[in-house]
Amino acid sequence: MINFILRKVLVTIPMLFIISIIVFFSIQFSPVDPINYLASPDASNNTANLEALREHLGLNDPLYVQYYHWIMNILHGDFGYSILTGQPIAEIIANKLPATLELSVTALLLSTIIGVFLGILSAIKQNSVIDYFSRNIGVIGISIPEFFFGIIIIQIFAIKLGWLPIGGRIDVNDVTFWDRLPNLILPSLALAFAMIAVLLRYTRNSMLDVLNKEFVKTARSKGIPEWKVFFFHAFRNALGPILVILAFRLPMLVGGAVIIETIFAWPGIGSAILASVSSSDYPVIMVTTLMIASAILIASFLVDIISALLDPRIRLE
Q1: Is the N or C terminus of the chain more exposed, i.e. has fewer CB atoms within 10 Å?
Q2: Which long-range contacts (CB under 8 A, 24 or more apart) does 156-165 make?
Q3: What's the total number of domains in the chain?
Q4: Which among 77, 6, 75 is positioned nearest to 301, based on CA atoms?
Q5: Containing structural domain, residue 222
Q6: What stretches of the chain show up as alpha helix (H) in DSSP?
Q7: How far apart are the C-alpha atoms of 183 and 168, rounded to whole Å?
Q8: 52 in a domain, yes or no?
């Protein structure tokens, strides 16, 4: 197992390096000049001042030199500064990331509990009313875009019924997590709905596949209670595909929360990404993109490790 992990680490490191190259050079080929957002309209006609500013920011250096300085600074923990505001990017991430993680982790927990529960119930009660209801939830969850579902629940629960706040993370006098909970319910539900549908379908199909295996029939023939057959024999062996989905989903939730954070005025990393893209703030775009891509790569690494622990045949391959 140790050799398997070492092989995966040796593959992951060069992939991180390749991702950083792709992120850096993709941004550099953008036709938008960030200097235009820094210079005032009066100074935009002064070519000498613009060139001096470009030289000061290192934008006149060859691309490979800019990349070298950028990646070395990141390796030393210096993420650079926002061109637009001058604020350290590390400070932006430190301020914004906790809100996004709070939203994403809540959505992941919510979707895992509901999706896996409905998937197991749907497999156990195949072709029943519960099964048809769960399958319809799965189809609706995959078909409706997250932003549209978010707008629907705002209209129902915030505007029509007035049960929950429309948006924002913190209201006046909010101190603890429980104070912020009403603000968290709608955006986490909007973010979790599509994930519930995916987990429901994967859990149901995986459970149905395992329930038809010979070892499940053998367990039943021994007189083991049905609930033990379902949870200790079937669900345990059906857990592999579900864990893979969960491991990949958290970094995707962090990166995919941009639209939901915008709809619900949630002050997370998604709002920082949207603002940096709108203003062509290249340093912030590069660091946040690299952060999300690295998180997905690390999730892939964890998926390989979890799969190898669940199935020894993967280690032998």
Answers
A1: C
A2: 157/186, 158/186
A3: 1
A4: 6
A5: 96-280+299-316
A6: 2-28, 35-38, 47-56, 63-75, 89-124, 129-143, 146-153, 177-211, 214-221, 226-228, 235-256, 258-263, 269-278, 282-310, 312-316
A7: 6
A8: no
HSE at residue 63, side-chain half, CA atoms within 13 A, is: 9
Q: Alpha-carbon distance 78 to 80, whole Å?
A: 6
Please enumerate in sequence order all residues whose Cβ is within 8 A of that of 308, keeping only pairs 6 or more positions apart, or say none. Answer: 1, 4, 314, 315
Counted residue by residue, the chain has a size of 317
pTM of the model: 0.74
In a domain, 210, yes or no: yes
* Residue 22 maps to a domain: no
Q: Domain of 234: which CATH number?
A: 1.10.3720.10
CB-CB contact of 197 with 140 (8 Å) = yes
Whether 112 is covered by a domain: the verdict is yes
Contact 67, 24 (CB under 8 A): yes
% of the chain surpassing 70 pLDDT: 81
In angstroms, the CA 27 to CA 152 distance is: 35
> What pLDDT, on the 0 to 100 scale, is given for residue 133?
85
Region of poorest pLDDT, from 154-158, 197-201, 292-296, 300-304: 300-304
